[in-house]
Design a protein that fits this description.
By secondary structure, this protein is an alpha/beta fold. It has 2 domains: 104 residues, no CATH class; 148 residues, Response regulator (Rossmann fold, 3-Layer(aba) Sandwich). The protein contains 11 helices and 9 strands. The strands form 2 sheets. A 7-stranded mixed beta sheet has the order 4-3-5-6-7-8-9, with helices on both faces. Strands 1-2 form a two-stranded parallel sheet. The longest helix is centred in the first third of the chain and has 25 residues. It is elongated and about 65 Å long.
Length: 264
């Protein structure tokens, strides 16, 4: 077959096939997914997590606009850590700041997660010889006043429990911890990236990626009621050495060795 005839044949085949492909794509069923996130729309951390979720969906065959529509809503009030992690936060705080004998637990008293996490911390406190005080996140002024009052006595530290209100007030809480020289442990690494001392919590980028896999399974026919709830499998420990130095703390080598991220 001569070159000109070949091009003519292929061109004609493509011209015939393209409308068919276009019609097939247009007729593909459009799916709709709702995403509710515990932050505001301009929060860079949660924008990155949403990006990972959407990227993984596209890899699994669900690109936005072709066969998938995403409705994103921004809100607060989510528990982003399991209750038993409260005990781990207290252990880590004592490990990085052994002199702490009093701990203020900053929580959202309207959120079941905040209440449950405080219960775990309070139950474990006697074994570590720590006195625990709840600080409720009602407003910025209340947090400011309550932390200032707590800091008037020595040997204090903070535990920030995993609720949406803590995310909303995170800049204030980090500032107060620094102002009053209070060692503090957080549930998310971005607190440490912003100047907090130490954090321990779920690797949420991994969770968002895994969430896309669940969506993929549901869209392919699996019943949500038959799918088990999956606990987190990856956790991250972050430490800010600059903040530790400002608090005159020496981070134990054993703790540094376990850290997923060390910020200098």
């Amino acid at each position: 077959m001569r070159r000109r005839e070949f091009i003519k044949l292929v061109g004609g085949s493509l011209a015939t096939a393209w409308p068919l492909a276009a019609r097939a794509q247009q007729s593909e069923k459009m799916r709709r997914i709702g995403v509710l996130l515990p932050a505001t729309a301009d929060d860079a951390v949660f924008q990155a997590r949403l990006g990972v979720f959407l990227q993984e969906l596209a890899i699994l065959g669900w690109p936005i606009g072709r066969n998938m529509r995403i409705d994103v809503r921004w809100a607060t009030g989510f528990m982003i850590a399991e209750y038993t992690m409260g005990g781990k936060w207290l252990e880590l705080l004592k490990e990085i700041a052994p002199g702490v004998t009093r701990v203020a637990v900053i929580r959202d008293a309207t959120n079941p997660g905040g209440i449950a996490q405080f219960g775990v911390i309070n139950a474990m406190a006697p074994s570590l010889r720590v006195e625990v005080t709840p600080v409720n996140m009602r407003s910025a002024d209340d947090i400011d006043n309550d932390v200032a009052a707590f800091a008037r006595s020595p040997n204090g530290g903070l535990i920030i429990t995993g609720t949406g209100a803590a995310i909303r007030y995170r800049e204030l809480i980090i500032t107060l911890a620094a102002r009053h020289k209070l060692p503090a442990i957080y549930f998310e690494r971005f607190f440490v990236a912003d100047g907090g001392l130490i954090s321990y919590g779920v690797d949420l980028l991994d969770q968002y990626r895994r969430a896309a896999g669940y969506i993929d399974r549901i869209l392919k026919g699996e019943k949500p009621a038959d799918m088990p709830v999956q606990a987190a499998t990856k956790y991250e420990l972050a430490i800010n050495l600059k903040t530790a130095k400002a608090l005159s703390l020496t981070v134990p080598p054993s703790l540094l060795a376990r850290a997923s991220e060390v910020i200098e």
